[in-house]
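Exercise 7. Predict the joint structure of the components listed below.
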Amino acid sequence: MSTHVQDFKRMASRYTADLRHRGLIQRALRSYEVKRDENKQRFQSWEEARQAASEIKWEAINHLDRHLQELITKLEARGTKVFVAGTGAQARDYILSVVKENNVRTIIKSKSMTTEEIDLNEALEHDGCTVFESDLGEYIVQLRHEKPYHLVFPAMHLTRDEISDLFEKELGSEPTSNPEELTMIARRAMRQNYCRADMGISGANFAVAETGMISITENEGNARLTTSLPKIHVAIVGIEKVLPRLEDLALFLPMLATAGAGQALTCYNTLYGGPRQPGEVDGPEQFHVVLLDNRRTELLADPEQRDALHCIRCGACLNVCPIFKNVGGHSYGTTYQGPIGSVITPHLRGLQDWKHLSNASSLCGACTEACPVGIDLHHHLIQNRRNANQSKPSMVEKILYGLFAFQMRDPWLYRISGKLAAFFYPLHRLIKGTTLDPLINWTKTREFPAPAQESFHDYWRKKKKESPDGRS
Amino acid sequence: MKVSLAIPCFVDQIYPQVGVSAVKVLERLGCEVDYPEGQTCCGQPPFNSGCWDEARAVAEHALEVFADSEVIVNLSGSCGTMMKIFYPDIFKGTAQHFAALKLAPRVYEFSDFLVNKLGVRDVGARFAGTATFHDGCHGLRELGVESQPRELLRHVRDLTLIEMKEAKTCCGFGGTFAVKFPMISTAMDEVKCASILETEADCVVSNDSSCLMQIEGLLRRQGRSTRCLHLAEVLAQT
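Solution:
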C-alpha cells in the first residue's frame, strides 16, 4: 500500500471523528447552496447555460493547439514574454531565472492553485526570496504553514476566533471576532508588502485566445494590486484555461461566480493584455506568461476523460460532495481536493499512488450534477478504478471476484451458497465485532441484517406450485 | 402486460419480502409477472471495484437470463442502472455489445415502471403513518427517478409524506465503498440518519434496499426504531 493511501485513511478517520469540524464545514456549505440556488435563477436557463459552457470548452480543448498558438501570438505582439513549460520543474526554473535576472528579493502573490501544483513558493523561498500571499484566505493558511483547505476557500476550516488567535500570535494584533476588523488587520500588514515587492505572481481564471488576454476574477482587489504595483508580473496559466473568444467570458464569468461562490458576479474581473505600453503611465514593465502543461496533454490524449480539462476550478463539485463534507480538504493530500482532484490527480501525479481517491467515493453523482461545464466526474472515478486494475491488478480482488463470478454464473451454486450463509449466520454472533469477524468493517459501526430463512426464489417456487399459471 | 422481475441478489437473500410485495403490487395492477429463475447478480460489485472482466462474466449470464424478457422491472435503482447504463459500457467492443444495447431500454426501475410505463399513480394502497423518502443516488441521478416514487406515495391512503432536508444526499453505502472506507461511509450515514430523525416520521421509505440496509444498520445501532421500508412494501399494503 502506498503511503498516500495510508495518509488519506488516517486523516479521513481523524476528520470524520471530529463532529465540530464536520458541523462547521456542512453549515458553511449549506449557506453556499442557498446563495448558489438564488443566483442560478438569474440565468434564463441554468441547464442550457451548462450545455453552452460545456460546448465552448469542448471546442477549446479539442482544438487546444490552434487556440494556444493564437493566444501566444497575440500576447507576444504586445510585448509579453510567453514561456511554455512542459513540466513543473521547467516552470519553476523559468520563474527563478526571471527572479535572478532582475534581482528580485520580495514577491507578492495573488491566489493561484497552479503555483500550488508546482510547489512554487517552496522553490522561491529556497532561492532566498520572501513570498507573501495576498489573498486573505491564502494569507491565513500561509501564516499557519498549511496547504489550502479548499481550492476556492483556502481557509474555510477556520473560525473567526481561530483567525483572531493566529493574527494575535503572528501579527501582534488585538483579539477580535469581527470579520471587518480581522480583514483590516490583514490589510494593514499586506499593504506594505505590495509596495515592497519586486515581483507579482498571479494565476489566471481564463486565457482569451482571440485577444491574447489573461482574465483574473477576485473579490478582494488583491490581484489587481499584485499585478500592477510591482515592476514585474508573472502569470502562471494551465494550458486548459484557454477560451476561444472574448465574448465567452460573458457566460463564464457569471457562471464561475455562481457555481463557485454563490455570487452573481465576482467583485473584480480584470483582463491583462500586456506590460506597460509606450505612452502608458502605469502597469508592470515586464509581463511574463508561463503556460503550464505538467501532464495535461496526457489527459488530453485520453478521449474518455479529456473533458476533465473543461474544469474552471470553481469548486462546485467539492461543495456538494458528501465525501468532502465529511473528510474535509486536508485529508486528500492533493493540490486539487474533492471529486475533480480525485479524477485528475491520478493523471497528474500517477495512477497507482492516487487511485485510492477514486475508490473513496460512493459514486453518488452529486458532483457531476453540480459541475457547470458538464464533466462526467463520477463516471471518471469508475474508469480510474478500471484503469488502475488493468495496469496493476490486485491479486486478492482478482481471486475474490473470480470466485464471485464463477458462483454467480451458476444459479445452483448461487442458491446453495445463500443457504449455507443463512445456515451459518447464527454463528456470526459469536465473532461479531472481533478481529475474526469478516464483516468487521461494517459491524464496527452498523448492524448487519440477518439473511432470510426463505429466499425470494423459495417463495416463487412455492407460489408456482400452488398456482401453476403464475397468478395468485 | 408481461413483466419479468429482476430481483437483486441481496433482496433475494436478505429482503425477500420486498420481492413478494412487488409481485403483489404488479399483479394487483393486472401485470403478468414472471421471475426468470436463473437470475443471480447483476455484476455491480466487481464492476465498481474496477474488475470489468469479472463483471462481464456475471453480466453475460444476466443477458442470457433476460434475453427473452419484454419488460424487466428492477427493484433497485442501483442494479437497474447497472443493467441499463453500465452494461452497454462494459460490453463495448465485445460480441455482447448489441445484446446489452437491446436489453437497456427494456429495463425499468420499479417506481418508474409504475408511473411512466403503466401510467398508474394510485395503486390502491393504504398505509397509516408518516413517512420520509430517501432517494437512492443511482435511481435519482442515473435514471432520473425523482418524482415517480413521491407521486406513488402521495396517493397512498392515510400516509403523510414528510420531505427530509437531506433526501438527495447519499446515505454512504456505495457498495464496496461501505467496507473499504467505513469511517467515511458511516459519517455520511450519520448525516442521513440525523436528517431522517429530524422529520420524526414513523418510517423511511426508499426505492433501493441497499441504501435501506445502510440506513437501518446505523439507526438500529443508535437504538432508533424508525421503520425502514422499500417502496414496494408500502404500496403492497391495503
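Discussion. Chain A has three domains: 1-41+307-392, 49-294, 395-466.
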